[in-house]
Design a protein that fits this description.
single chain, 3-stranded antiparallel β-sheet, Double Stranded RNA Binding Domain, Ribonuclease iii, N-terminal Endonuclease Domain, Chain A
Length: about 280
């Protein structure tokens, strides 16, 4: 796979000088004021190998945003949200490349659908649970730790953040190795790929097949504490409201809204009533 990765990383993940990477790691060091438990360090070493130079990155990857919202620690640490953003992109690229190479007969729509099924909250949380990643999350003292460590959202965020940390610490090849071992070779991977399309993809397919505008998702309401927000999202098409969903993640709320929309559409088509 080396020549292939050389090509895609030349434009998607071209890295700057080594000093730039060292500077990013040093910045994380300033934010890491507490030591990780020895068992967590051993856990990270088992997953990724030597973590000594990148330990502050991995600590940040395991830091749930509830820590940042605790008055006693909010000025001392950074949550894993920025690393989640990076890890999401790294994961998306590597999974896209894997699907592209593995399914040469698949069209763009099918590849997109399969990728969405692999990288959604539920799937990522399942991969994280296999690693017992929740046991090593750092949570705020005022937060409900049991609730957070069993949350699909928190587990998925930590999993993506860990990928981001591996990429920054060890590079794209190490990130690929991790994803191959803990995602692509996961016992549920094939079942996930072969599962029914996700609701958002199915709704897009429906609108495209009838030459309708793309579904539009709008946040209708936000509620709850900063680290336990609930989002209510509505979906519409041709200015007609079709469904509503509520969840802790915007993406999950969108999926629930699309699910409701599909149910309404199915019922309307049975009655021969257009949406």
């Amino acid at each position: 796979m080396e020549p292939f990765w050389q090509k895609i990383t030349s434009f998607a993940f071209k890295r700057t000088e080594e000093s730039a990477l060292e500077e990013r790691i040093a910045q994380h060091s300033l934010l890491s004021t507490q030591e990780l438990f020895p068992e967590t360090i051993a856990f990270l070493q088992k997953l990724t190998g030597d973590v000594e130079t990148g330990l502050p990155l991995y600590r940040t990857a395991l830091t749930h945003r509830s820590v940042v919202h605790d008055p006693a620690t909010q000025h001392l640490v950074e949550s894993n949200q920025r690393l989640e953003f990076l890890g999401d992109s790294v994961l998306g690229l590597l999974i896209s490349a894997y699907l592209f190479r593995t399914f040469p007969e698949s069209a763009e729509g099918e590849l997109s659908s399969n990728r969405a099924k692999i990288v959604n909250r539920k799937s990522l949380a399942g991969f994280a649970e296999t690693l017992n990643l929740g046991e090593h999350l750092l949570t705020g003292e005022s937060a409900d730790r049991n609730k957070i460590t069993s949350s699909d959202s928190a587990l998925a965020d930590a999993f993506e953040s860990l990928i981001g940390a591996i990429y920054l610490d060890k590079g794209i090849q190490a990130a690929e190795n991790f994803i191959r071992k803990h995602v692509i070779e996961h016992e549920n991977f094939r079942m996930i790929v072969e599962a029914e399309h996700n609701y958002k993809s199915r709704l897009i397919e429906y609108t495209q097949s009838r030459h309708l505008p793309m579904p539009l998702y709008t946040i209708e309401e936000e509620s709850g504490a900063e680290h336990e927000k609930q989002f209510t999202v509505g979906v519409s098409c041709s200015d007609q409201h079709l469904g509503t969903g509520t969840a802790r993640r915007k993406k999950d709320a969108e999926q629930l809204a699309a699910k409701e929309a599909l149910s309404i559409i199915d019922a309307a088509e049975k009655d021969e009533t257009p949406i």
